[in-house]
Amino acid sequence: VFIAQSRASGSHRDLEDEELTRIFVMIPKSYTEEDLREKFKMYGDIEYCSIIKNKTTGESKGLGYVRYLKPSQAARAIEECDRSFRAILAEPKNKSSESFEHDYYSNNTRQEPRGTTLPFCVQPEFCSFEKNESRLQESVSKRLSVVSRLPFIQEQLFALFDLVPGLEYCDVQRDPYTNSGYAVIQYSTAASAIYAKYKLHGFEYPPGNRLTVIFLEDGSDSSE
User: Fold this and answer.
1) Where do the RRM domain residues begin and end (predicted)?
2) CATH classification at residue 155
3) Any domain includes 9
4) Is residue 80 part of a domain?
């Protein structure tokens, strides 16, 4: 059973959507909000951009926020923007932004190993991937593998993953020896697959049974 919050109640958007539409980036101190918008508008519809400034001097700290209208747009921006921006999902507004900014800046200005071009995970709870998984360990694709200790029912699993737009197919397979569940899910875009993995990895379905969701190679060009 899925319980949806009415959009008429409280905020104009779900709180969890709000947490998945705002990204945090490192930028040159010379950037204006217009420069920031110009760099990130290609990934989706931007609701607002803001630059974090020193409260005393008014000087840019070289950090900023970009808020998109859709979580899939924020996911696309994180994956496709230049690695120098070190984009990650921003902490919710109700948490301490100053400590988040400090941790992000101190972690992202460390010396990186020679040859490494991808950003380090700042802290696991701030990243768009699960704990102990970094982008260096995982190749993003449009296809997902779903594993469960209980067998899946095709229609139910399809309905679950169809909550994320762009589902192309859901292929449920069963191991006759272990009776565990295994399925391959494919979306029309990598952004949808990223969002589905973020939302459903570790999700209990049915209650008490955690799903394991990982990316599968789909044969496409990884640079896409």
Assistant:
1) 21-95
2) 3.30.70.330
3) no
4) yes
Name the β-bridge partners of 204.
Answer: 210
Query: pLDDT (tens digit, 9 = 90+) per residue, 115-168?
Result: 333 333 333 333 444 344 444 445 788 999 999 888 888 888 999 999 899 999
**Residue 90 has what pLDDT?**
83
Domain of residue 151: give its range.
143-215
User: Model pTM?
Assistant: 0.42
Average pLDDT of the residues in 187-201: 91
| Res 145: pLDDT | 92
In angstroms, the first-to-last Cα distance of the chain is: 35
Which pLDDT score is estimated for 91?
75
Residue 217, φ and ψ in degrees, nearest 5: -60, 130
Residue 30 covered by a domain: yes
How many angstroms separate the CA atoms of 216 and 143, rounded? 5
pLDDT, mean over the chain = 77
Retrieve residue 99's tokens: 């400590």
Residues 6+ apart with CB under 8 A from 96: none
Please give the Cα distance from 36 to 63 (Å, whole number): 10
